[in-house]
Amino acid sequence: MKYLLITVLFFANIVYSQSDQKSEKILDEMSAEIKSLNSFYIEFTMNVDNPATGENSRQDGLGYVKGNKYFASLGQNTLVSNGIKNWTIVKEEKVTYQSDVDLESDEAMNPKKLMTIWEDGFKSKYVKGSTKIHEIALYPVNPSEVNYHTITLFVKTSNNELHQAIMKTKDGSTMKYTITKFEKNKEVPESKFVYNPKNHPGFQLIRD
Fold first, then answer.
1. What ranges do the domains of the chain cover?
2. Which of 44, 134, 166, 194 could form a disulfide with 155 if both were Cys (CB 3.0 to 4.6 A apart)?
3. Which residues 6+ apart lie within 8 Å of 53 measured at CB?
4. Quick check: 17 pLDDT over 70?
């Protein structure tokens, strides 16, 4: 649950200003592509490394997005939203938390945020490129309000799709998100975005 919360806070605290033209053009094209999709599916890994504490961990995640509906799983925890209700399924506790959607705060939980994290709260800079990858650095506009100082994006030159995002935090940790699969306009049943208690026998449902 710890890294699920870190991930949500990461995406929640991410205004596009003073960016160089090359990076801005690439990021604008990426945003336009994501917003043009009816739905998509992603698989990703999250690696956390902190030399000070000796921590080195990996979790696998996946996400389905269709409009304002989503299903996201990271490690042992799952977030489900039908655009009206949210459900947070915590396997370790055998508890599901249900709440009404808050459009301002809940957007951060949508996997779409991983694919468009540069849109809010950052200046961008084109660092370097190769035949395969663009490297773009993101710097928070209000660094005192967040727990990280830099996010580096690695973007595929062939199709302008996000390959990897690396966040450097102020406590010395490195969080690396790597997109391992990305499917556009994937058919997703509506049932994917609604919590079904029959699939979670023995779980307590707590309504907010």
1. 2-14+16-207
2. 134
3. none
4. no
Q: Which residues pair with 45 in a beta bridge?
A: 60, 178
Q: Which residues contact 136 (CB under 8 A, 6 or more apart)?
A: 23, 26, 27, 118, 124, 125, 126, 127, 152, 153, 155
85 has which bridge partners?
100
Q: Is the dihedral of CA 38, 105, 123, 125 positive or negative?
A: negative
Residue 79 contacts residue 72 (beta carbons within 8 Å)? yes
Categorise residue 83: left if φ over 0, alpha if ψ from -120 to 50, beta otherwise: left
Q: Which CATH superfamily is domain 2-14+16-207 in?
A: Lipoprotein localisation LolA/LolB/LppX (2.50.20.10)
Looking at 67-156, which runs of residues are DSSP E strands? 69-74, 77-81, 85-90, 95-100, 122-129, 133-140, 148-156
Give long-range contacts, CB 8 A cutoff, 24+ apart: 139-147: 140/13, 140/14, 141/15, 141/17, 145/13, 146/13, 146/14, 146/121, 147/9, 147/13, 147/171
First-last CA distance in the chain: 18
pLDDT the model gives residue 18: 47
* Cβ neighbours around 175 below 10 Å, total: 20
pTM of the predicted model as reported, rounded to 2 decimal places: 0.81
Q: What is the largest CA-CA distance in the chain?
A: 54
